[in-house]
């Protein structure tokens, strides 16, 4: 059963075995697995309930307002400021992401084993969790009908240069490439948790409360005992009703900004002093290639391919076409130059991004008026990697026949030949001159075996707070360099199995 | 102040519209709907966290009144000639102060984002997603039925 602000008519006061906060990749996974294990589970989601049928019109202001936190205006403050987006709706960021599904790279699992003693996170031991997730959300290559010219252009450039690339694996059940992933899939092809885990959760007897902002974790002695919150009207922003959930186990899955924000607000013990720290963000540099031939980037799926030649360096490249309102953010111009440039290039361009596996670390602070603020300054190695990634993607475009490339730099906007790529290195630049964005936030409740150096244990249970778990990207000890959805879901599955097996330890 | 009361005053809308004529100018083939812009930006502003909203208003006020403070000009932004407005905007765009540059970039992005929803603009640049989305929905239904 799904309750919304319209169907909730009074204060919510419920008791259950498990309360899950957040319905994205982590939350929906934990909720579904535990409900199917026979436990009574309540899932709380801050955003609203929007369905496939609501996504069948082109992008409108409501697409962003209804699905994105703060209407997509979330920013990571620092040098440079980095625009980031996260979903706030049923399904969380899986409702608005591109659905890429990759297992955690073995080099990352190895780091986690060696550097963090997470010896259970070997590829072999994680295999059943990855497989379970992949089967449920139908991870498979892009359907041929969904491929489009901009992805083929990237592939062509990679082939000419001899760069390794791979067909993207996505969670889809016949995605036909409407190119609306970022505003809700209109066909139900993309297997966000909205159309996969959440229906299964409800079928197993789970209850969902949407439009519910969780304010604090409840405690009974040292143990977590549920949450308190409010139901909020999304139109008027008025607080309508109080929410109190009493539970034996509480699992927080709000993402790497909202999760530490909630835990800090709840003043949980923080012996390691690491709660909210260790923020990684996978900065993305947007690079646009312009071609003479027509390329209708909006007709077809995002990211049919990824260039993996430089993955060991921490760089992957892909395509992600963006509609006109968002394209404005990727071009540095205004005035008639902006209008005429967009008219000239819109159906002749490839909008790509280079993702950086970052090493810099930021943190999250709570500001007044319920604002969680991520702060992150790019370090020199990541800055140099970003320059290199931009240069490499520009090279791919020129190899594929681009006549012009628009760059993500404040004072160097465009280059016209492959020789001009050296300007990226000759022009005096600093991190503040980069125009970056991201959709992957990680690390702020890092897991580890030593409570002095971690926030959660290897199963996601918060140290010093029995019965409180975290099951989202905030538990990653490091950046992972690939799309994090499948890693989140596999670890959340593992956490859910652990909770189910050890439920007798937790009482109300 | 509740978020539903987070709105722009007429003078604040005036500042944004004055900037918008530079960011997204109409031409012979393209006439932007300014009423729609005001409506859309109002809807986005209601979603801003309180601190962002107050920061935005403060930035707008500074942007409007700074020419008076700097002695070089005696008029507010909205009272300047178009040419003077453009020069003033460029001074924010290229400022040595990081905060000024970033605020200008944020304003530009917001205004262009809002105008980016204009369907006349879509027609002008060749973006027509609605029939494509409908065709793809039908295609998937066909492929699913053949499974």
Describe this structure in words.
The complex is a heterodimer of chains A (508) and B (147). Chain A is α+β, with helices and mostly antiparallel strands and 508 residues long. Chain A is 26% helix and 22% strand. In chain A, the strands form four sheets. In chain A, strands 4, 5, 7, 14, 15, 16, 17, 20, 21 and 22 form a ten-stranded mixed β-sheet that branches. In chain A, helix 1 runs parallel beside helix 6 (197-203), helix 1 (25-36) runs parallel beside helix 12 and helix 5 (149-161) packs across helix 10. In chain B, helix 1 packs across helix 5 (98-115) and helix 2 (34-45) packs across helix 5. Chain B is built from seven helices and no strands. The longest helix of chain B is centred in the middle third of the chain and has 20 residues, at 50-69. Chain B has helices at residues 10-23, 34-45, 50-69, 82-93, 98-115, 119-125, 129-146. Chains A and B meet through helix 2, helix 8 and helix 9 of A and helix 2, helix 3, helix 5, helix 6 and helix 7 of B.
């Amino acid at each position: 059963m799904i309750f919304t602000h319209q169907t909730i008519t009074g204060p919510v006061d419920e008791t259950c075995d498990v309360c899950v906060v957040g319905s994205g990749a982590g939350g929906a996974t934990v909720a579904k697995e535990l409900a199917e294990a026979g436990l009574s589970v309540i899932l709380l989601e801050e955003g609203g309930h929007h369905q496939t049928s609501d996504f069948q019109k082109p992008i409108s202001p409501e697409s962003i307002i209804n699905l994105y936190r703060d209407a997509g205006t979330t920013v990571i403050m620092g040098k440079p400021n980095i625009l980031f987006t996260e979903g706030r709706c049923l399904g969380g960021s899986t409702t608005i992401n591109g659905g890429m599904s990759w297992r955690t790279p073995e080099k990352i699992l190895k780091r986690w084993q060696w550097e963090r003693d997470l010896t259970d996170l070997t590829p072999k031991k994680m295999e059943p969790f990855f497989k379970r997730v992949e089967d449920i959300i139908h991870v498979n290559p892009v359907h041929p009908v969904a491929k489009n010219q901009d992805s083929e252009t990237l592939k062509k450039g990679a082939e000419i240069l001899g760069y390794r690339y791979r067909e993207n694996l996505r969670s889809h059940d016949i995605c036909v490439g409407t190119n609306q992933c970022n505003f809700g899939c209109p066909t139900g092809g993309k297997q966000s948790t909205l159309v996969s885990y959440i229906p299964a959760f409800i079928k197993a007897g789970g209850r969902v409360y949407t439009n519910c902002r969780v304010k604090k974790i409840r405690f009974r002695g040292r143990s977590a005992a549920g949450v308190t919150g409010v139901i909020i009207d999304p139109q008027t922003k008025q607080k309508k009703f109080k929410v109190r959930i009493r539970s034996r186990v509480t699992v927080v899955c709000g993402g790497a900004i909202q999760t530490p924000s909630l835990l800090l607000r709840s003043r949980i013990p923080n012996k390691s002093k690491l709660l909210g720290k260790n923020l990684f963000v996978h900065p993305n540099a947007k690079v646009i290639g312009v071609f003479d031939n027509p390329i209708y980037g909006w007709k077809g799926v995002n990211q049919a391919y990824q260039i993996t030649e430089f993955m060991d360096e921490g760089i992957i490249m892909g395509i992600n076409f963006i509609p006109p309102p968002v394209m404005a953010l990727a071009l540095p111009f205004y005035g008639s130059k902006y209008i005429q440039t967009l008219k000239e290039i819109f159906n002749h361009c490839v909008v790509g991004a280079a993702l950086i596996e970052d090493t810099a670390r930021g943190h999250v602070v709570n500001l007044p008026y319920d604002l969680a603020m991520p702060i992150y300054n790019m370090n020199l190695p990541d800055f140099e990697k970003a320059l290199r990634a931009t240069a490499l993607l520009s090279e791919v475009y020129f190899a594929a026949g681009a006549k012009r490339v628009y760059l993500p730099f404040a004072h160097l906007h465009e280059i016209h030949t492959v020789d001009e790529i050296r300007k990226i290195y000759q022009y005096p630049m600093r991190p503040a001159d980069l125009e970056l964005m991201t959709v992957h936030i990680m690390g702020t409740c890092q897991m580890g075996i030593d409570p002095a150096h971690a926030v959660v244990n290897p199963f996601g249970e918060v140290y010093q707070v029995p019965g409180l778990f975290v099951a989202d990207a905030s538990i990653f000890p490091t950046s992972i360099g690939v799309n994090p959805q499948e890693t989140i879901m596999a670890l959340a599955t593992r956490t859910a199995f652990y909770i189910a097996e050890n439920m007798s330890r937790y009482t109300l | 102040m509740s978020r539903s009361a987070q709105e722009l005053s007429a003078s604040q809308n005036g500042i944004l519209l004055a900037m918008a004529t530079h960011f997204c100018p109409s031409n012979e083939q393209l006439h932007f709907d300014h009423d729609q812009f005001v409506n859309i930006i109002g809807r986005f502003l209601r979603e801003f966290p309180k601190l962002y909203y107050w920061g935005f208003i403060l930035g707008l006020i500074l942007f409007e009144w700074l020419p008076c403070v700097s002695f070089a000009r005696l008029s507010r932004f909205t009272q300047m000639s178009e040419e003077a407005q453009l020069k003033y905007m460029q001074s924010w765009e290229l400022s040595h102060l990081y905060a000024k540059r970033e605020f200008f970039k944020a304003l530009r992005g917001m205004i262009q984002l809002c105008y980016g929803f204009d369907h006349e603009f879509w027609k002008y640049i060749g973006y027509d997603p609605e029939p494509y989305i409908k065709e793809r929905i039908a295609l998937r239904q066909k492929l699913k039925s053949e499974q």
